[in-house]
Specification:
Radius of gyration: 14 Å
Mean pLDDT: 88
Number of domains: 1
Strand order of the largest sheet: 1-2-3-4-5
CATH topology: Methylamine Dehydrogenase, Chain H
Low-confidence stretches: none
Number of helices: 0
Helix content: under 10%
Structural class: mainly beta
CATH superfamily: YVTN repeat-like/Quinoprotein amine dehydrogenase
CATH architecture: 7 Propeller
Protein backbone atom coordinates (compact mmCIF):
# COMPACT_ATOMS: atom_id res chain seq x y z
CA UNK A 1 0.00 0.00 0.00
CA UNK A 2 1.08 3.56 -0.70
CA UNK A 3 0.32 6.50 1.53
CA UNK A 4 -0.15 10.06 0.32
CA UNK A 5 -1.37 13.17 2.12
CA UNK A 6 -4.94 11.88 1.68
CA UNK A 7 -4.30 8.51 3.37
CA UNK A 8 -3.67 4.94 2.26
CA UNK A 9 -3.99 4.00 -1.41
CA UNK A 10 -5.12 0.37 -1.58
CA UNK A 11 -5.45 -0.04 -5.36
CA UNK A 12 -5.15 1.98 -8.58
CA UNK A 13 -6.24 1.61 -12.18
CA UNK A 14 -5.62 3.65 -15.35
CA UNK A 15 -8.61 4.65 -17.46
CA UNK A 16 -8.51 2.34 -20.52
CA UNK A 17 -9.48 5.16 -22.92
CA UNK A 18 -7.15 7.85 -21.56
CA UNK A 19 -3.77 6.99 -20.04
CA UNK A 20 -3.54 10.48 -18.56
CA UNK A 21 -6.01 9.59 -15.82
CA UNK A 22 -5.60 7.16 -12.97
CA UNK A 23 -8.11 6.28 -10.25
CA UNK A 24 -7.09 5.34 -6.72
CA UNK A 25 -8.98 3.30 -4.11
CA UNK A 26 -8.40 4.98 -0.79
CA UNK A 27 -8.54 4.18 2.90
CA UNK A 28 -10.53 7.38 3.48
CA UNK A 29 -13.62 5.75 1.82
CA UNK A 30 -13.17 7.61 -1.47
CA UNK A 31 -12.14 6.96 -5.06
CA UNK A 32 -10.01 9.74 -6.48
CA UNK A 33 -9.32 10.38 -10.16
CA UNK A 34 -6.00 12.08 -10.93
CA UNK A 35 -4.62 13.76 -14.04
CA UNK A 36 -1.16 12.46 -15.03
CA UNK A 37 0.56 14.79 -17.52
CA UNK A 38 2.48 13.41 -20.52
CA UNK A 39 5.54 15.32 -19.30
CA UNK A 40 6.12 13.80 -15.86
CA UNK A 41 8.43 16.69 -14.93
CA UNK A 42 5.22 18.74 -14.71
CA UNK A 43 3.71 16.27 -12.25
CA UNK A 44 2.85 18.10 -9.07
CA UNK A 45 1.17 17.37 -5.78
CA UNK A 46 -2.26 18.50 -6.86
CA UNK A 47 -5.86 18.00 -5.91
CA UNK A 48 -7.71 15.12 -7.59
CA UNK A 49 -9.73 15.83 -10.73
CA UNK A 50 -12.77 14.23 -9.08
CA UNK A 51 -13.65 12.38 -5.88
CA UNK A 52 -16.32 9.68 -5.59
CA UNK A 53 -18.11 9.25 -2.25
CA UNK A 54 -20.43 6.40 -1.29
CA UNK A 55 -18.62 3.61 0.50
CA UNK A 56 -18.87 3.51 4.30
CA UNK A 57 -15.44 1.92 4.88
CA UNK A 58 -12.08 1.78 3.11
CA UNK A 59 -12.08 0.78 -0.54
CA UNK A 60 -9.86 -2.17 -1.33
CA UNK A 61 -10.35 -2.79 -5.10
CA UNK A 62 -11.21 -0.83 -8.25
CA UNK A 63 -11.43 -1.97 -11.87
CA UNK A 64 -12.37 0.05 -14.97
CA UNK A 65 -14.74 -1.42 -17.53
CA UNK A 66 -12.70 -2.34 -20.64
CA UNK A 67 -15.32 -1.20 -23.16
CA UNK A 68 -17.51 1.47 -21.51
CA UNK A 69 -15.61 4.71 -21.04
CA UNK A 70 -15.57 5.98 -17.47
CA UNK A 71 -17.37 3.01 -15.88
CA UNK A 72 -15.62 1.74 -12.75
CA UNK A 73 -16.36 -1.06 -10.27
CA UNK A 74 -15.23 -0.82 -6.66
CA UNK A 75 -15.26 -3.10 -3.65
CA UNK A 76 -15.06 -1.98 -0.05
CA UNK A 77 -14.61 -3.42 3.42
CA UNK A 78 -18.22 -2.24 3.94
CA UNK A 79 -19.23 -5.41 1.99
CA UNK A 80 -20.52 -3.61 -1.09
CA UNK A 81 -19.58 -3.62 -4.75
CA UNK A 82 -20.47 -0.39 -6.52
CA UNK A 83 -20.53 0.58 -10.19
CA UNK A 84 -19.62 4.22 -10.88
CA UNK A 85 -19.91 6.70 -13.73
CA UNK A 86 -16.55 8.43 -13.21
CA UNK A 87 -17.18 11.05 -15.92
CA UNK A 88 -20.28 12.36 -14.13
CA UNK A 89 -18.99 11.49 -10.61
CA UNK A 90 -21.99 9.44 -9.59
CA UNK A 91 -22.83 5.99 -8.29
CA UNK A 92 -24.87 3.91 -10.74
CA UNK A 93 -25.42 0.65 -8.84
CA UNK A 94 -24.66 -0.92 -5.47
CA UNK A 95 -24.66 -4.59 -4.45
CA UNK A 96 -24.72 -5.63 -0.78
CA UNK A 97 -22.57 -8.69 -0.07
CA UNK A 98 -21.67 -10.85 2.95
CA UNK A 99 -18.01 -9.77 2.95
CA UNK A 100 -15.55 -7.68 0.95
CA UNK A 101 -14.35 -9.05 -2.39
CA UNK A 102 -10.80 -10.33 -2.87
CA UNK A 103 -10.81 -9.66 -6.61
CA UNK A 104 -12.89 -7.88 -9.28
CA UNK A 105 -12.70 -8.44 -13.02
CA UNK A 106 -14.82 -7.41 -16.03
CA UNK A 107 -15.23 -9.80 -18.97
CA UNK A 108 -13.66 -8.76 -22.30
CA UNK A 109 -16.69 -6.89 -23.66
CA UNK A 110 -17.50 -5.27 -20.30
CA UNK A 111 -21.01 -6.76 -20.06
CA UNK A 112 -20.33 -8.77 -16.88
CA UNK A 113 -18.26 -8.36 -13.75
CA UNK A 114 -17.08 -11.18 -11.51
CA UNK A 115 -15.63 -11.25 -8.03
CA UNK A 116 -13.93 -13.66 -5.65
CA UNK A 117 -15.19 -13.95 -2.07
CA UNK A 118 -14.02 -15.66 1.09
CA UNK A 119 -17.18 -17.82 1.16
CA UNK A 120 -15.69 -19.94 -1.71
Amino acid sequence: MIKDKYGMINDFNFLPFNDNYVATANGDKTIKVWNVPDDLSKLKDDVPRSVLYGHKKKINLIEFNPSAEGILASSSVDSTVKIWDVINSKEMYSLECKDSAYSLSWNMDGSLISSIWRDK
